[in-house]
């Protein structure tokens, strides 16, 4: 009987320590899931933002894609039609403009969340936003016709933030 109690006691101790390890691993995993789903965009750091507008698939005479590239000291505006660069301009900006764009990325709720449209979508426009820290991409999202993709947030307001305070001649599509 003593032998049985000793074996049972050892088994019980090991099973409790395994359970404690399982619980601590499970809690750590649960905490990672909570942190990753709360709002991952708010945990980002970046020193460059790219805002791309993707135009409809139409004749090259009419199709225009544009890209804004914002860094702490400049904004670049690029227009292309089927990868042929039509316009590429860059201006210097004050540090507060960069800080405003960076803050509004979060204020506008730019984040990843899958969206699915209930209707078939073809030939429409889209917007993609990417952020970088150095050469490492830290965020990437895309929305098609404002109803399908993997990005949510007020992308129109975010574009207005980028444009605010900049002479409109800079970003006029020629």
Topology record:
Elements: H1 2-38, E1 48-54, E2 65-71, E3 74-81, E4 84-92, H2 95-107, E5 111-115, E6 126-133, E7 136-144, E8 148-152, H3 155-163
Antiparallel strand pairs: 1-2, 1-6, 2-3, 3-4, 5-8, 6-7, 7-8
Protein described:
This protein is an alpha+beta fold and 174 residues long. The chain folds into 2 domains: 2-38; 42-163, Mago nashi protein (2-Layer Sandwich), CATH 3.30.1560. It is 34% helix and 33% strand. It is built from 3 helices and 8 strands, in the order H-E-E-E-E-H-E-E-E-E-H. The protein has an 8-stranded antiparallel sheet, with helices on one face. The radius of gyration is 25 Å and the shape is globular. It starts with a helix and ends in an 11-residue tail after the last helix.
Structure keywords:
single chain; 174 residues; alpha+beta; Mago nashi protein; 8-stranded antiparallel sheet; 8 strands; 33% strand; globular; disordered N terminus
Helix content: 25-40%
Mean pLDDT rating: 79
**The CATH architecture of the largest domain:** 2-Layer Sandwich
Helix-strand pattern:
HEEEEHEEEEH
**Low-confidence spans:** 1-38
Q: Strand-residue fraction?
A: 25-35%
Number of helices: 3
Rg over CA atoms: 25 Å
**Major sheet:** 8 strands, antiparallel
Q: How many runs of DSSP E, i.e. beta strands?
A: 8
Structural classification: alpha+beta
What separation lies between the terminal Cα atoms? 93 Å
CATH level-3 fold name of the largest domain: Mago nashi protein
Backbone shape = globular
CATH class assignment of the largest domain: Alpha Beta
């Amino acid at each position: 009987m003593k032998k049985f109690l000793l074996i049972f006691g050892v088994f019980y101790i090991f099973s409790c320590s395994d359970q404690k390890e399982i619980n601590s691993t499970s809690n750590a995993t649960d905490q990672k899931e909570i942190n990753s789903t709360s709002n991952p965009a708010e945990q980002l750091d970046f020193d460059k933002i790219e805002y791309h507008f993707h135009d409809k698939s139409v004749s090259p005479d009419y199709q225009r894609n544009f890209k804004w590239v914002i860094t702490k000291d400049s904004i670049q505006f690029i227009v292309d039609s089927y990868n042929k660069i039509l316009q590429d301009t860059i201006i210097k900006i004050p540090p507060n403009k960069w800080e405003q764009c960076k803050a509004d990325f979060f204020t506008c709720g730019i984040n990843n969340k899958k969206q699915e449209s209930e209707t078939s979508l073809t030939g429409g426009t889209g917007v993609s936003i990417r952020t970088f820290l150095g050469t490492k991409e830290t965020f990437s999202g895309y929305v098609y016709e404002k109803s399908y993709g993997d990005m949510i947030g007020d992308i129109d307001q975010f574009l207005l933030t980028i444009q605010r305070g900049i002479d409109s001649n800079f970003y006029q599509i020629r």
